[in-house]
Amino acid sequence: MENTHNITEFILLGLSQNKKIKNLCFLLFLFCYIAIWMGNTLIMISITHSQLMDQPMYFFLNYLALSDLCYTSTVTPKLITDLLAERNKISYNNCMTQLFTMHIFGGIEILILTAMAYDRYVAICKPLHYTSLMSRQRCNALVTACCAGGLLHSLVQGLLIFNLPFCGPNKIDHYFCDVYPLPKLVCTDTHTVGILVVANSGMMGLVTFVVLMLSYFLILCTIRAYPTESRSKALSTCSSHLTVVVLFFVPVLFIYIRPATTFPVDKVFALFYTIITPMFNPLIYTLRNMEMKKALRKVWCQKPFLTGKHVI
């Protein structure tokens, strides 16, 4: 298929055309973006400057916080600035770059959540083999595989979209460039592309979600035989991760598992996995986690750290 470059820029219709609503959204999402940076940076510094980094669960949590920052930064800054602009434009090249990077970090985040579920499964269901199965070399290999998987997912997604002939109209009824709004602007049949997009994004999300739910089913079956105190501790760590999984996967599956079409409510669901979940992740993993609370107090409440001296 010959790639046509009749369109050099796209118009993003955004969340609303109402000036008052846009101003309110600007303040709201600016606060959210600041909270995302503060919360996830706090998590990363607290883990890397404490002994928690030696534990696989927090090793993965550190990378989850980093992927959250990268993922939301592909969308949120543009959304915030567009809320103050009269006409929201994005060039063709920037649109394709946003699409590509968003799906890289989105894919990485999905796979890191899966790695975290695997870590909890091994810790609870195979405790005698935990040290060997979740060695630092294995954890590094899993993170590398997550990055490679995210890159592969995005490359496939990009190849499906980059070669489409965009020749008008150029208005995208969304606040960022994504794989479902863009094919509506193509001047050729995109039925096959839509099926391939579902096969790539939709099935990736569905398969990983099923694997995650299966792992937690096995965990719940295992901890039934645990003493009450051990069961409560296991449920505490698992419930935090499960909450994040549900917040992220439910809107993702709603949008990407269905046939290639768009609805106005898609923008609201997209807010959950691009802004809301990255903002709440630090709170979810901190509020019910005593080890994380201790690490925060140890790192941030000691004067040697504040003066640049590292204490473990």
Outline:
This protein has 312 residues and is mainly α. The protein is 70% helix and 3% strand.
Folded structure, characterized:
By secondary structure, this protein is mainly alpha-helical. Helix content is 70%, strand content 3%. The chain is built from eleven helices and three strands; from the N terminus they run βαααβαααβααααα. It has helices at residues 19-48, 56-73, 76-82, 92-125, 130-133, 136-162, 191-223, 228-256, 266-287, 290-300, 303-306, and strands spanning 9-12, 89-91, 171-172. It has a three-stranded mixed sheet with strand order 2-1-3. The longest helix has 34 residues, at 92-125. 37% of the residues are buried. Mean pLDDT is 85; it is low at 303-312.
